[in-house]
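Throughout our pipeline, every protein is held as a single compact record rather than as scattered files. The record that follows is passed on verbatim for readers who wish to inspect the format.
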Amino acid sequence: KSEKNRKAFVAELQEKRKLEELKAQSRKQRIDEERAERREKAEMQKHINEERQKRYEENDKKREERIMALEGERRKRDLHAIQDLVEAANVKKADMAQKLENARARKKEEEMAMQADMVAKKKFETKIDGKREGAITERRSRIKQAEKEYLNLRERQIRSIEGEQLEKEARKQNYLREKAGQRASQLREKHERIEAWEHSEDVRTQNNMKKEHARNMLMLDHIESLRQQFSQEQAMATSRKQTALEQRKDREAKEADEAAAESKMKAQLDTKRQSNISGRESVRKDKNQDYCIKIRDMKTAQALRTREQADQLEDAREKTRHEKQREREFRTEQDYAAAQVDAQREENIRNKELERDRKFAGQIKERKAQETQQGIELEARKHQRRQQDKESAQKHEQEDQQRKRQMAILEDQREQMIKQRASERNLREKERLQSNSKNGTDGQTAEAADTAAASTAEASK
C-alpha cells in the first residue's frame, strides 16, 4: 500500500513537474515572441526613421536645386533686363546722336541762310538785344526754378524708395520670425509625441512586470501548497504506521499470552521473523529516507531553476530597460543633432537669402541710380533741346516779325508811290482837260471826267 501511494505521489509529482515545465516553456516562448515583436517594432521604427531621413535629405536637395534654378532664372532675367536697358539706352543714344546730327545739319543750313540775312538784320538785332537779355534772364530764372523743383521731386522719390525698402525689410523679418515660431512649435509637438510614446512604453513594461510578479507569486504559493500537502500526507502515513505497529504489538502480546507454550517452540522462528522484519523496516526506512532526500533535492533543483529563470527574466527586463534607455538617449541625441542640422541649414539659407537680397538690392540701387542719372541726363538734354527749340522759335518769330515790318514798310512805300503817281496823273489829266476844255465840247469834258474818275479808282485799287 505504501509503495502504491509512493508511486501515485511520484506520478503526480512528475505530472506537476511536466506541467511546470510546459508553463515555463510557454512563458519562455511568450517572452521570446514579445522580444521578437519588440525587435521587429524597433527595426520597423528604425526603417521608418531612415526613410524619413532620406525624404528629408531628398526634400533638402530638391529645395536647394529649386533655389539654384530660381537664382539662375533671376540672374538670367536680371541680365536680360540689364541688356534690354543697355540696348534701349544705346538706341536712345543713337537716336539722340542722329537727331543732334540732323539738328546740326539744319543749324548749318539755317546759319548759311541766316548769314545772307545778317546785313539786313543787324539794325533790327540792336533793337531787340534789350528784349532778348530780359527774356534770357527770365528764362534763366525759370530754369533755376525748374531745377529746384526737380531736385525736390528727386529727394522725395529717394525718401519714398528708402521707406519702401525699410517696410519690405520689416515685413521680411516678421515673416522669418513667424516661420521660426512655426518650426519651434512643430519640433515641440514632435518631442511631446515622442515623450507620450515613451511614457506608454514605460507603462506597458511596468504592467508586464506586475503581471510577471503576480504569476511568480502564484507559482510560489502553489509550490508552498504542494509542500504542505506532502508534509500532511507524510504525517498521516507515519501516524498510520504507528497505529498499525501498536495494534500488531497488542495482538502479538495477546497471542504470546495465549500461546506461551507455542512461543517457546517457535522462539527461534519469531526471532528470525523479527530480525527479518527489522531488516525490512530498516530497508524501508532507508528507502524512505533516500526518497525524501531525492524529493528534497528535486525541489531544491526546481527552486534553483525557477530562481535562475526569475533572475534571467529580471536580467532580460533590465537589459531591455537599458536598451530602451540607450535607444531613447540615442533618439534624443539624434533628434537634437537633426534639430541642430535643421537650425544650421535654416541659418545658412537665411544668410544666403539675406546676401542674395543685399546683392539684388545693391544691383537694383545701382540700376536705379544709373536710371536716375540717365533720366537726369535725358531731362537735361530735353531741357536743352527745348531751350534750343524755344530760342530757334523766338528767332524765327523775331525774323517773321522783322520780315512783316519790312513788308509793311515796303507796302507803305508802295502805297505812297501809287498815291503820288495817281495824284500826278490826276494833275496831268486836269491840265489836259483844261487845255481840251477850251477846244472841246461839254460831252468831251464829261468823258474826260469819267476817264479821270476811273483812273483814280484804279490807282486807289
